[in-house]
Amino acid sequence: MSSAAHQFLEKATLKSFDHEHRKRLDFNIGKYDQAVLAGKSHYRDLELAKRRAANIKGKVINKLDTYLIEFQKNFEKRGGKVIWADSGRDAQKEILQIIKKAKAKVIVKQKTMVSEELEINDFLEKNKREVFETDLGEYIVQLDGEKPYHIVTPAMHKSKEDVSELFHKKFGLPENSPPEEITKFVREKLRSEFIRADVGITGANFLIADVGAVALTENEGNGILTFSFPRIHIVVTGIEKLIPSLEDLDLFYPLLATHGTGQRMTVYNNVLFGPKKSEEADGPEEMYVVLVDNKRTDMLKYPEQRKALSCIRCGACLNECPVYKSIGGHTYGTVYSGPIGSVISPHFMGMRDYNHLSFASSLCGKCTEVCPVKIPLHELLLYNRRDAVTRKYTSFMWRRMVWGWKYAMLHRWVLDKPGSSIKNSIVRRFGKNLWGPRRMLPKIAQKSFKELWQEQHAD
To answer: For the packed helices 160-171 and 136-143, what is the interaxial angle rounded to 10 degrees?
Structure first.
């Protein structure tokens, strides 16, 4: 068992039986579930919209190279610059080079999961730069020295009392300050950082190939300030965020909003076509798009798992997953948690060390059901499991047990012949640790259902 798998099991055990954590998570996700259910009711034919979105994203993923080149050509026509980063380290170096060239000391950031993937905050702070998260949830977890807990809601695991205590400790705000007062304080504090900032970093919800534009959607207005106040704007994004046409936003914006937060549309939706022109008063003087690969093209080698690159990061699968709702986001030990994380993280971080995530699923299929781009997530988890077993990344003992179970299932006499006492001794010996210390091992009856049936229907 890898150290990552061992840590996962330890954390999962603790979180599963942390009643306060479960209560908080159930409450917060329950609020989202109600909002999303109401949001979906506005669709006349939601299934049709999802099929169309899946078809478009599938087409893009299968012709990714073509769309990437089209995006680069059109974006650079408007004065922007595209930078290709094969790995996370390459992306870090390119971003730092831009910052050093600009002699920038203060950086503001909009929420972006790819920057978490690159650990960009830690990297820039080690290079003596000040970095401020400007999304309220991200700012809270940054202050507390944590990683985001959820793709959409970084501080979902914290109660308002936790946040109040954090701001009392960090800034001396009164104890039990209400959310409104904390929000007002953060707004005023970050406003000065926007003015000081030399560089703004954002992600991208969508890259639009036919016009070479970056589409951003948010609810707080911090994104607009992040790309408009500083004179340099850096977009850090995965290469899979492409959509073919500007018209496709008509489909994808509402799907993302509805499945992410239950809104018909998010509050702020911006389409950026490059740095400001000479006749424009606002906007960055320079704009860069850093296209991050970081093992994404490796996923293209897998005909089934490549479908996961269609993800639009709405977080719906996390909110529905019984495993995520039991153990929470930090337990996974990866940037991307929940069902989508369990599919892509083993490919991004190494199948040998992270294949256990693909086994941490009930395979109930709810994640597949709610996905707005129809990614068959529970099926992809099975493909990951298959690959882990084929490459012998699972233990020898586990493979022998599975082989024995398969043999027994295919040969009825193996189940029928031993007596119940022998069967129970086998279960005790091999099933005790797997069953766990908190559950009572089931006892096998003296007679099987088949035997009872034959006795009652002897004629």
So the answer is: 60
CATH fold of the domain at 306-390: Fumarate Reductase Iron-sulfur Protein; Chain B, domain 2 (1.10.1060)
* pTM beyond 0.85: yes
> Which two three-digit tokens encode residue 30?
């329950």
Question: Which amino acid would we find at residue 35?
Answer: A
106-109: strand order across its sheet: 81-85, 286-292, 232-238, 199-202, 106-109, 130-133
Q: Are 213 and 75 in contact (CB under 8 A)?
A: yes
Q: 22: which 2 tokens?
A: 């479960």
> In this structure, are residues 232 and 199 in contact, taking their beta carbons and an 8 Å threshold?
yes
Asked if 302 and 383 touch (Cβ cutoff 8 Å), the reply is yes
DSSP 333: -
User: For the chain, what is the largest distance between any 2 Cα atoms, rounded to a whole number of angstroms?
Assistant: 95
Give residue 143's pLDDT.
96
Judged on CB neighbours under 10 Å (0-12, 13-18, 19+), 212 is buried
Helix (H, G, I), strand (E, B) or coil at 175: coil
Q: Token pair of 177, please?
A: 């300050």
Mean pLDDT by 10 residues, the chain (459 residues): 90 91 91 93 96 98 97 97 97 97 96 95 96 96 95 93 95 94 95 94 97 96 94 97 97 97 94 91 93 96 96 96 95 96 97 95 96 98 95 86 87 81 82 78 85 86
Q: Between 3.40.50.10420, 3.40.50.970, 3.40.50.920, 3.50.4.10, what CATH number should domain 42-294 receive? A: 3.40.50.10420
List own/partner pairs for 424-430 with CB under 8 A and 24 or more apart: 430/401
The residue extents of the domains of the chain are: 42-294, 306-390, 400-456
Q: How many CB atoms lie within 10 A of CB 288?
A: 21
